Amino acid sequence: MLKILNILVDDKFIDGLIEVLEFTKGEHKHDYILIGKGVIEKFQYINKTEYIKQIDNKDCLNFINNNGYDLVILHSLACIPWFKISQIDNKIKVLWKAWGFDLYRTPSEIQPFVKLRRLHPITKKYWWRHYKDKIYLNLKTWFYSQIHKKQIESAINRIDYFSGCLPNEFALMRKNSFFRAEHVELPYFHLKSNYTTKNKDIFQELGHNILIGNGAVIANNHFDIFKAISTIDISDKQIIVPLSYGGDDFYIKDIIAYGNKIFGANFHPILDFMSLQEYNTLLSTCSHAILGYEQQAALGNAAELLWLGVKLFLPQTSVNYKYFRDNGYKVFTIENDLTEEQVSQPLTSSEKMQNREAFLKTMSVDINLEKINKIYKVIEKDS
Fold it and tell me: Domain range holding 138?
């Protein structure tokens, strides 16, 4: 029997994670903690609070090291202070579930673990004009990361297992000489999703709208996408732009102003946070979607869109595009395929089925459950 400690952050993924881990645990035991200063009276996203214990920063190492844990899972690097990772008892295995921020903006935006071009030209110009305060902050963070470089590298070197959100992120992380972890896959998903073999041939009728982005994070590259699609006739379509997650108020205001200018009455920003069911219903009103991230991001959105049969456009150089292309999905590039002809035509029936079959081989509920059960076997073998 394994005793496993999950160190969490308050985020929208956590309720689904707890449900999955409790379902798969068998004879194993999962505990869940949040580390911080003081007690959080009300969580922003987590509803399954009965599973969670809050631990003060000063007590966390004592709790981790003296409760008989075989495995500690770090759900993002934001869940624990850096220097404490290397102080976790060597008898305890450590698994890092890396989130996008961990890889592409940590330890600093200037020199992250995985360096990519995050912003496209128009969005980059906007960033330089409106985020001047971030220049100083980024330099300060970079300077701090250089001072504490050995501690940061020691923390990452302490990690035994690594799971990105996509498997190809492991190869990107391996370019760091201090990274020694083995690759495992710890997916975030919902047990009650429709991503199963029995639903393979069931396709719901889609709307005709176009989804752009998944939130108000600037790495969505909204400005560049709006510009790219501005010359295409979309008179019979609504442009759906979710802006209720992440981002700065002034950025949201500017995106709305630019969207109204270009698309007029066809522009439909989403400003209120939706439940997963409401959001997935919104996605089903779309026949096309454009996600402008270069880094791995918006994976839950991309998965739902591909399953539904929505035609998905991604940057040609993006982590997401390379993964989907290499695993047999029919996806399209913003640079070469975002044309009037492609936007006027939805996916064909055969293209939709191609994506369903690729999905069932890579991200179905059964495949994801296998990935988690494999983690238990790996840890039992190595402990």
Answer: 3-190+366-382
